[in-house]
Amino acid sequence: MIDRTDREGRTDRLGRPVRAENYTASRPPGWQGQPGGCGIASCISLKGEKIGGDRIARMLTIMEERENGLGAGYACYGLFPERHDQYCLQFFFDDEEGKCNVENFLDGRLDVLHDERVFTRDRSTISPPYPIVWRYFANVPNAREWRGERDLGEEDYMVEIVQHINEKIPEAFCVSSGKDMAVFKGNGYSYEIAELYDLARYSGTMWLSHSRFPTNSPAWWAGAHPLSLLDWGVCHNGEITSYGVNRKLVEMNGYKCTVLTDTEVVTYLWDLLVRRNQLPIEVAAFAMAPSTFQEIALLPPAERRLAEWLRITYKEAFLNGPFSIIVGRSQPNISLIALADRKKLRPMIAGLSPDEGVAYCASEESAIRIVEPDARTWAPGAGNPFIAVAGKGIVRRGTEPSFQGVNL
């Protein structure tokens, strides 16, 4: 077992005391409630070029008043150009036994092509214990017998593998499992996580990030944001008060909730509505942050019928409470989505570089200005998604009518 000896008298760079207890792949035994704050920041190259990890670290760490050291993380897309068609499963292991158990489970279920230790610095200001961080590049076997009698599709098969590991195999947790992307996170301040993984060594087409001031959820390495499944990555500021009914919906559709946070459910909702149910992103966003029936009654007939159908059919997907989220995906194209609740109770600002090559979304304008002083900025509307796609540009500014561009 891992040594849970904590460092005494640890403080952050401002001299504030830091909570000593720390958990990695194993879930904490207790429950802790903390006031909500959180900072989120993201950037995407609209031209498909590379953005260094130092840029997203600067964006996130400037919002230090939004964190207290209980967790932070980053997700990078377009990270593995030479292996972009392979799944990258990135894990936290408490010990070698957890690693061995996962490798035994994967043997015969995936074609593992390469594995490697994820770089972390030998010395860090983060309190121990530290997990073993490891990644595996793999393909799903084509033969039907590998997937069982149900003949699952490739992505559903991968979801089952990841969720089985996270639910059933102790001392191990899969923190990301998509193609051409990976998540780097942990139980510490945003600057500590950036230093731990040396983010400056990485570059990608898109970055998401989150600094944590947890709301009603334990502080542990695997529970820090971004939360990820397949190529989805979600960073969330706020509190989903409809968590119970949202969780029932995803569990009825086969998802396993093991992370102890509402953001996990939001991640599964995006996968369910967009990947499995094939809803356009604008339509899925409306289902999660819908207009009131009074507002729907004022829409043109075709839009009104769609809006009413969504409110009735996906009533359990309605996210209630204050939230702003940034969502990333790599399939079929690297895309950035940002969405705030329908009352805009949590902040969200979007930006565009002067050459229109890089788009941004963040909790605060300062996060954009620190890396792009002359950016054009605006506030996406409440419940109105901002969407940017590498190679295509900004698809939605978040100020358009709800179903603009949707084939009705």
What structural category characterises the helix and strand content? Answer: alpha+beta
CATH topology: Glutamine Phosphoribosylpyrophosphate, subunit 1, domain 1
Lateral arrangement of strands in the main beta sheet: 8-3-10-1-16-15-17
Number-wise, the strands total: 19
Helical coverage, percent range: 10-25%
The name of the CATH architecture is 4-Layer Sandwich
Summed up, the domain count is 1
On the 0 to 100 scale, the average pLDDT is: 89
Q: What integer value in Å does the Rg equal?
A: 20 Å
In this structure, how is the largest beta sheet organized? 7 strands, antiparallel
Protein described:
- This protein is an alpha+beta fold and 408 residues long.
- It has a single domain, classed as 4-Layer Sandwich (Glutamine Phosphoribosylpyrophosphate, subunit 1, domain 1).
- The protein is 24% helix and 24% strand.
- The protein contains ten helices and 19 strands.
- The chain has helices spanning 53-61, 96-106, 154-168, 190-197, 243-252, 262-276, 281-288, 293-296, 301-313, 365-369; strands spanning 39-45, 51-52, 72-77, 87-93, 111-117, 132-139, 172-176, 181-186, 203-204, 206-211, 227-229, 232-238, 323-329, 335-340, 349-352, 358-362, 376-378, 386-389, 393-396.
- A seven-stranded antiparallel β-sheet has the order 8-3-10-1-16-15-17. A six-stranded antiparallel β-sheet has the order 11-12-13-14-18-19, with helices on one face.
- A hairpin with a 2-residue loop joins strand 11 and strand 12 (232-238).
- Helix 5 packs across helix 6 (262-276).
- It is globular and about 60 Å long.
